[in-house]
Amino acid sequence: MPQDAPLNGGALTEPAGPVRRVAEMQAKLHRWAAAGPGRRFDDLFNLVHDPATLLVAYSRVAGNLGARTAGVDGMTVADVERHIGVPGFLDDLRVQVKTGTFRPLPVRERKIPKPGGSGKVRRLGIPTVADRVVQAALKLVLEPIFEADFLPVSYGFRPKRRAQDAIAEIHYYGTHGYRWVLDADIEACFDSIDHVALMDRVRTRIKDKRVLTLVKAFLKAGILTELGDRRDTHTGTPQGGILSPLLANIALTVLDEHLMAGWRPDATMASEYRRAQLRKRGEATWRLVRYADDFVVLVHGGEDHAQALREDVATMLAPLGLRLSPAKTRVVHLSDGFDFLGFHIQWRRKRGTNKWHVYTFIAKRPIRSLKAKVRALTRRTSQQDLGTVLTRLNLVAHGWANYFRHAVAKNVFSMLDNFIWKRVIRMLIARHRWSWTDVRRHFVTPVGRWRPISAGEIELRPIAAIPVTRYRWRATRIPSPWSTTVNA
């Protein structure tokens, strides 16, 4: 390891030397990629196994919640630090990658229920710690290159972008006449992407055969099922891997480029004047908003235009091995509303007026999901101490509320505060065999005010106190993380 990159097996923070070195490397790659749209990058392999890259990659893996989850080798990050030591682990890994002897192990399959109580499951693939580090190193090198090509209509799993940006863009265009919506979902996207089509997209920018071989090795690593069977992966990039979201975005850039071709400079929808001329001739204009494999196409036109786009999108996705989900894909008018990323977006009349606006509400599914989590934490037979319960409730509820605080959420927050309070009170009544008189004695002050539920210094904090504000659409003003060199 370089002298400016000392290793500390117990530390999860990134040393300043490697962070700065990696940031400068990423800034250069991004600048070169942006300056040369057709440029193919060679000699990237040395950057992947560079000691600084591997050290930063390891710190990212170790700082992730998944660090406590083992792959097929049964090793967690804590096991690596305890039994091997970080310096030795990274040195051995670097030698394997550099000499070409590194081989990814199959990912460990884990099925988790999909939200909403549909009974369906989502398959996750859990790589080993070594595979995660190499994937993170690949991402550090590849992401700044492909970010130069990604269009601003894509928001999922990209730096400095978030779901609220996608919702704000829908809000903006919905307000400006885009009232028909193709609400689409790609069926089993991460499991179905064609490897040949994906690697062809990667090769448009990457020329280094050793990097391409490494990416393909992860795609073909296979899956160890929950029953212990080995299954080859002929398609898809398993969810759970660090590299998977980037590869999915690379593949789905085809969709972005196809639907947004008219918005390029000097194209038919490049200016508001040209878009207005199209609509005068009875044609439609549209705008794509995509978050990973979930996307909507907002149409300024009629229902027939939206239906035509649905067929066009389905035809375009077929070469990638993808198809639209029949159950989740529909054409809807904005006045009927639709759900996207947990929000319910609807064009409706403002109460007491004749003015119509686009409103963003919290969808029913995430509310049900939060209530289910609260019920699980506040079972009447729970033996967890009150402080632990309150801590978990605060974390879950406030994380949820901060995500939705830009929607019309004030009444929902108040309703959920009441729900959580009643669940905790009922748990305490059952635990201590209290009567309602006992409850009032513990939580009502002499002047008749209710005290917050607390355990020592830990209080149940209301989410209604979180300010509800409008999220402003940032359009093309979202900064690139590599626009300038980062000093560490």
UniProtKB/TrEMBL annotation:
<dbReference type="InterPro" id="IPR000477">
    <property type="entry name" value="RT_dom"/>
</dbReference>
<keyword id="KW-0808">Transferase</keyword>
<protein>
    <submittedName>
        <fullName>RNA-directed DNA polymerase</fullName>
        <ecNumber>2.7.7.49</ecNumber>
    </submittedName>
</protein>
<dbReference type="Pfam" id="PF08388">
    <property type="entry name" value="GIIM"/>
</dbReference>
<feature type="domain" description="Reverse transcriptase">
    <location>
        <begin position="93"/>
        <end position="345"/>
    </location>
</feature>
<dbReference type="InterPro" id="IPR030931">
    <property type="entry name" value="Group_II_RT_mat"/>
</dbReference>
<dbReference type="Pfam" id="PF00078">
    <property type="entry name" value="RVT_1"/>
</dbReference>
<dbReference type="InterPro" id="IPR013597">
    <property type="entry name" value="Mat_intron_G2"/>
</dbReference>
<keyword id="KW-0695">RNA-directed DNA polymerase</keyword>
<keyword id="KW-0548">Nucleotidyltransferase</keyword>
<dbReference type="InterPro" id="IPR043502">
    <property type="entry name" value="DNA/RNA_pol_sf"/>
</dbReference>
<dbReference type="GO" id="GO:0003964">
    <property type="term" value="F:RNA-directed DNA polymerase activity"/>
</dbReference>
<dbReference type="InterPro" id="IPR051083">
    <property type="entry name" value="GrpII_Intron_Splice-Mob/Def"/>
</dbReference>
